[in-house]
Specification:
With 915 residues, the protein is α/β, with parallel strands linked by helices. The chain has four domains: 220 residues, Glycogen Phosphorylase B (Rossmann fold, 3-Layer(aba) Sandwich), CATH 3.40.50; 70 residues, no CATH class; 204 residues, Rossmann fold (3-Layer(aba) Sandwich); 227 residues, HAD superfamily/HAD-like (Rossmann fold). The protein is built from 27 helices and 30 strands. Strands 9-8-1-10-11-12-15-14-13 form a nine-stranded mixed β-sheet. It has a six-stranded parallel β-sheet with strand order 18-17-16-19-20-21, with helices on both faces. It has a five-stranded parallel β-sheet with strand order 23-22-28-29-30, with helices on both faces. Helix 3 packs across helix 19, helix 5 crosses helix 6 and helix 20 runs parallel beside helix 27.
């Protein structure tokens, strides 16, 4: 879908994301392992026009290159254009403290490995599988290792491993080709190094760098250029750029993914000016310690696992958690400070992802009227998982500073609402969270891909060439393709085990099908890498022959054209995520299958599944189910393929990246306006002298008066309230005097007594000493005002509310609201607004359309807000409406009274005027 060109907002859009779309490359002398400059290295790469690109020398520190592969890796690392991908599905940059230059690599020669052969012609080609572990006998002794100057040339020998099964079947004599050769290396980006690291989680094969390497002098006067970043939230970048024509101006706010302690103030200001002037970006400079503690510790080792339903299995000290949390707070504070510094009245602020969950409230504290939105690109876990986070309240409170919080799927939004109700004891509804003086809206905005841009890239002749090569290579065979990060949550190991089950259950496919798995590197610490390699080795050893290998496992990324070629040539795409925010590979596969229309097998735990119902759904933990889904997809009739693909394409082409960005920003502007109108206007004190003339001249008046907290204070004994009695003779006298006037119609708005949900409340009453049950006509209320332990009563109220919403609310139209030391359950379609509507319509049926010309509505809590909204909507013409809340607070009412006594005094003035 292509959005129109009308402006979404006349103000600027400030997009906060942890990593900017740009990074900085410094031209500094190459350094050896000990930090000494080596001036004899000369750059052999041609520099871009007007740019001073650094040399990719062995001593160069590169942030565009991932950490070196162990010697047992299958294929050399290749670069990729990660367009259209969401952050959770992108290649992440290696931990800076763990980066190694080429001179630090273990140059142990690769031993002989098992070889298989495939012969489609007269030529025979060798195939490399997972190499055996290097034995001690195979290793070079220290005196046999090449010296540092020699290592660069020796590395070139290792960069040419034995040919792959993906090599072409027709080759020229004496020459070997890879179907996926290593991509051209990017220019290395020299950047200041982060000197800190977590020694506990540092790869053993990557020695820790010396702190002496870093020096402010090295980068103080060094020439630098702005380069496009290869990591970060690419999906967000593409989506925002796609609607740039609908924005008056867009500013990116984020870090450069680099250490900044070594940069001089002058260099920082120069970088800041260049990015702001020519790239529309504002950098956030954070210290080395804060960067390491925020991103690599708290985000990746605490938040990431919990949000993906993985509780850390290694016990960490309280000091570690508290320390990393302080760094998380510091980085979020730096972002908030930068945003506030660059904010202008009328700007719209869009904060993105779990790295910055404290930023909305930090901004709200300083810019109370700002339009702030937050979008979470990863899953939000159930309350049972989230409550394990030691800073759960702080994180939730940080998010609730936004006007709008967006999620990928309905289940993520539901989990968030339930968690807020359970942990913060706030009132929630399907629309959002109701706070004391404001409301936070919650919305579902599934991200998509830029189909227009993707279709343009598909027209590249190189894509068609790759499709041809693949089809020739695997002629007569079915191709299953997959591309995932080698992370636990992506379910690569489960995919391999399911494929093994498939080959066992359906031996007729042995020798006729190949699974091509592209495994992307990841900075998250996990043991999946070795586990997957073991399974792949076992499967290939069991089912391979001289001319066949069932799994091609690429421990590298591939170029984007190769990726599109794979998706286009595939007979099946297999995605078995154990938990995923969205996974846009499925969208890209649907677009690439425009001609073949082959099916998609998708995990029910991928966020995409909620939208792509025409796929073949699987539980990745059920290997037999996945195996049968593979078989079903392979034997599916063409008519069913076309029908399923049309449904998938309809969603993918409708819910595009442009639609996602436009929808979220438009909704944010709308809800911010609604919240501002409802809560940000100061409510004046009711002036009874101004109201009396309207009251006196009215022919028929409707008085709607709340009971508890309005006519009587909450402090009255509950035993007296529950029986409907009162000792306030003044209140009875005033109400009786008003009701005696034939021109007045007086209603006491109070829901009292009716037995419903008694047994459930009895359960919590018995376990909360001092609490009691109050029966009302419509709702039922559980009070814990007199409980022995009020804090325990509050916790029980949250548990009961969660129980009711999950067990009953999904079946019956009821909802539970935590009030002032009470929990009230009532039907969803029963409210004071419904009651007021029934009263007004009844009077009009009895006395005509002009039956009422004056309405006075007074209440004190959230249940009265619906009544205020309805009454205010009736105002106009001869009808005068006065809505008043008790206490100075944000409300839909137009006036307020300080307390119960002032309400009685005002009503007495009205009653006396009639006398």
């Amino acid at each position: 879908m292509v959005v129109d060109s009308t402006l979404i907002t006349t103000g600027r859009l400030l997009v906060a994301t942890f990593l900017l779309p740009e990074t900085i490359s410094f031209q500094v002398p190459a350094r050896d392992k000990d930090g000494r400059s080596r001036s004899n290295n000369k750059c052999s790469l041609p520099a871009a026009a007007g740019a001073n690109l650094p040399c990719p020398t062995p001593g160069t520190l590169s942030t565009s290159t991932l950490a070196p592969r162990p010697a047992a890796s299958i294929h050399p690392l290749a670069a990729v254009d990660t367009s259209n991908g969401a952050m959770s599905d992108q290649t992440q940059r290696s931990i800076p403290s763990r980066r190694s230059t080429s001179c630090d690599m273990d140059l142990t020669p690769v031993p002989s490995s098992p070889r298989f052969f495939k012969s489609n012609s007269s030529s025979v080609e060798a195939v490399t599988t997972v190499p055996k572990p290097i034995s001690k006998a195979d290793r070079l002794k220290d005196h046999e290792r090449p010296s540092l100057p020699q290592r660069a040339s020796y590395q070139g020998h290792l960069a040419n491993p034995p040919p792959s099964i993906l090599a072409r079947s027709s080759e020229t004599k004496g020459t070997h080709y890879n179907v996926f050769p290593e991509a051209e290396p990017r220019p290395a980006l020299n950047q200041p190094r982060i000197r800190t690291g977590d020694p506990i989680h540092t790869h053993k094969t990557q020695p820790q760098r010396r702190s002496s390497v870093d020096s402010a002098k090295v980068f103080a006067e060094a020439a630098w250029t702005v380069e496009k970043a290869i990591s970060g939230n690419i999906g967000l970048n593409n989506a925002v750029n796609s609607i740039q024509g609908q924005l008056s101006k867009r500013l990116w706010i984020g870090t450069l993914d680099m250490a900044t302690d070594t940069l001089s103030d002058r260099t920082r200001e120069d970088i800041k000016a260049e990015l702001a002037l020519n790239h529309g970006s504002i950098p956030v400079f954070v210290s080395d310690l804060d960067y390491e503690g925020h991103y690599h510790q708290f985000c990746k080792q605490i938040l990431w696992p919990i949000f993906h339903y993985v509780l850390p299995d290694n016990l960490r000290s309280k000091t570690y958690e508290d320390g990393s949390w302080k760094h998380y707070v510091a980085v979020n504070r730096a972002f908030a400070d930068t945003i506030v510094e660059n904010y202008r009245q009328g700007d719209t602020i869009w904060v993105n992802d779990y790295h910055l969950m404290l930023v909305p409230n930090m901004i709200r504290e300083r810019l109370p009227d700002a339009s702030i939105g937050f979008f979470l690109h990863i899953p939000f876990p159930s309350s049972e998982i989230f409550r394990c986070l030691h800073v759960r309240k702080e994180v939730l409170q940080g998010l609730l500073g936004a006007d709008l919080i967006g999620f990928q799927t309905y289940s993520f939004a539901r989990h968030f609402l339930q968690t807020c109700s359970r942990i913060l004891s706030v009132e929630s509804s399907p629309k959002g969270i109701q706070l004391e003086n404001t409301a936070v809206n919650v919305g579902i905005f599934p991200i998509g891909i830029d189909t227009v841009s993707l279709n343009i890239k598909r027209q590249d002749p190189e894509v068609a060439q790759w499709v041809k090569v693949l089809k020739e290579k695997y002629a007569g065979m079915k191709m299953i393709v997959a591309r995932d990060k080698l992370d636990y949550i992506k379910g690569v190991r489960q995919k391999m085990l399911a494929f093994e089950r498939f080959l066992n259950l359906h031996p007729e496919w042995q020798g006729k099908i190949v699974l091509i798995q592209v495994a992307l590197s990841t900075s998250e610490q996990n043991e999946v890498q070795g586990q997957v390699s073991d399974v792949v080795t076992r499967i290939n050893s069991k089912f391979s022959s001289l001319s066949y290998q069932p799994i091609v496992f690429l421990r590298q990324d591939i170029t984007f054209n190769q990726y599109l070629g794979l998706l286009t040539a595939a007979d099946l795409c297999l995605i078995t995520s154990l938990r995923d925010g969205m996974n846009l590979t499925s969208h890209e596969y649907v677009v690439c299958q425009e001609e073949q229309k082959n099916p998609l097998v998708l995990s029910e735990f991928a966020g995409t599944y909620g939208s792509l119902g025409a796929c073949l759904r699987v539980n990745p933990w059920n290997y037999t189910e996945v195996a049968e889904a593979i078989h079903e997809a392979l034997v599916m009739k063409d008519e069913e393929k076309v029908m399923r693909w049309n449904e998938l394409r309809k969603h993918v082409c409708t819910n595009t990246a442009q639609f996602w960005a436009d929808d979220f920003v438009s909704e944010l502007i709308k809800v911010h306006g609604d919240v501002q109108r409802r809560y940000s206007i100061h409510i004046p004190l009711l002036n009874m002298q101004a109201v009396l003339p309207q009251f006196q001249t009215a022919k028929r008046r409707l008085l709607l008066l709340d009971y508890d907290g309005t006519l009587l204070p909450y402090e009255w004994p509950s035993t007296v309230r529950s029986k409907g009695k009162t000792s306030s003779e003044d209140m009875l006298k005033v109400v009786g005097q008003l009701a005696s006037d034939p021109r007045n119609v007086v209603y006491i708005m109070s829901g009292r007594t009716r037995d419903s949900l008694d047994n459930m409340f009895e359960y919590y009453k018995e376990r909360t000493p001092g609490s009691e049950i109050e029966e009302k006509t419509i709702p039922i209320v559980w009070h814990y005002r007199q409980a022995d332990n009020p804090s325990y009563g509050l916790w029980q109220a949250r548990e009961c509310q969660n129980h009711i919403e999950e067990a009953i609310g999904s079946i019956y139209p009821v909802h539970a609201v935590v009030g002032r030391k009470c929990l009230e359950v009532m039907p969803r379609d029963v409210s004071k607004a419904h009651a007021t509507k029934a009263i007004v319509e009844g009077l009009r049926q009895q006395h005509g359309t002009d039956a009422v010309d004056f309405i006075l509505g007074i209440g004190d809590d959230r249940s009265d807000e619906d009544m205020f909204i309805y009454c205010n909507g009736l105002a106009g013409g001869e009808l005068r409406v006065v809505t008043c809340t008790v206490g100075s607070k944000s409300s839909e009412a137009h006036w307020f009274m300080p307390g119960v006594s002032s309400v009685l005094q005002g009503l007495k003035i009205m009653a006396d005027q009639e006398g």
